[in-house]
Amino acid sequence: MTFILGLTGSIGMGKSATAAMFRARGVAVHDADATVHRLYAGPAVATVEAAFPGVVVDGAIDRLRLGQRVFGSGEAMKRLEDLVHPLVQRAERDFIEAARQKGARLVVLDIPLLFETGADRRCRAVAVVTAPAWIQRERVMARPGMDERRYAAILGRQIPDVEKRRRAHFLIDSSRGLVFAEAQVAAIIAALSSTL
């Protein structure tokens, strides 16, 4: 049986770098964000364009245009999620099945809004990547195109870090450098391997 570990963390916490650490150790990782990017380049184009006319550029969803249409509107965001989430979940199921066929004993689901979307119910355990709020803010505000309003809106859609930590089975502190984070990832894999 394949053990499904959810991996999540609020914006700027270092989740993507942590997912890469699992991959580097041979663990199959399904990246929900990468799946959305792939869907926006093909499978979801017609559906999203029908709901939000004018967001397609050169045959693909323009994320900036789409963001302008849904940003700040709970109703528009929900409509988009209702269209895209089932497609992402189908890709996730296919990924898990393919990993099972290859004999994988551990699979990681890298999902930014894992708790917010109820995806934690599809996982046997959850690892949360965390860092102090001031480090998170510093990392996020350094991103191109980020401003206070956008940052506040993103945080408003996410469960607070303290609540994510409370719900986690494992914590990965990304504030103490890559070597420290890698040691935590290795410890999680070792702990789960003993139960597989």
TrEMBL record:
Q: What is its EC number?
A: 2.7.1.24
Q: Which GO terms describe its molecular function?
A: dephospho-CoA kinase activity
Primary location class: cytoplasm
Q: Which Pfam families match?
A: CoaE
- Transferase recorded as keyword: yes
The UniProt keywords, alphabetically, are: ATP-binding, Coenzyme A biosynthesis, Cytoplasm, Kinase, Nucleotide-binding, Transferase
Provide the protein's localization.
Cytoplasm
* Residues the record lists as binding ATP: 12-17
Name the pathway it acts in: Cofactor biosynthesis; coenzyme A biosynthesis; CoA from (R)-pantothenate: step 5/5
Name the reaction it catalyses: 3'-dephospho-CoA + ATP = ADP + CoA + H(+)
Reported function: Catalyzes the phosphorylation of the 3'-hydroxyl group of dephosphocoenzyme A to form coenzyme A.
Q: Which PANTHER family did the record assign?
A: BIFUNCTIONAL COENZYME A SYNTHASE-RELATED, DEPHOSPHO-COA KINASE-RELATED
Matches recorded under NCBIfam families: dephospho-CoA kinase
In the record, the note on similarity to other proteins reads:
Belongs to the CoaE family.
Please give the name of this protein. Dephospho-CoA kinase
The organism of origin for this protein: Labrys monachus
Q: What is the lineage of its organism?
A: Bacteria, Pseudomonadati, Pseudomonadota, Alphaproteobacteria, Hyphomicrobiales
Q: Which gene encodes it?
A: coaE
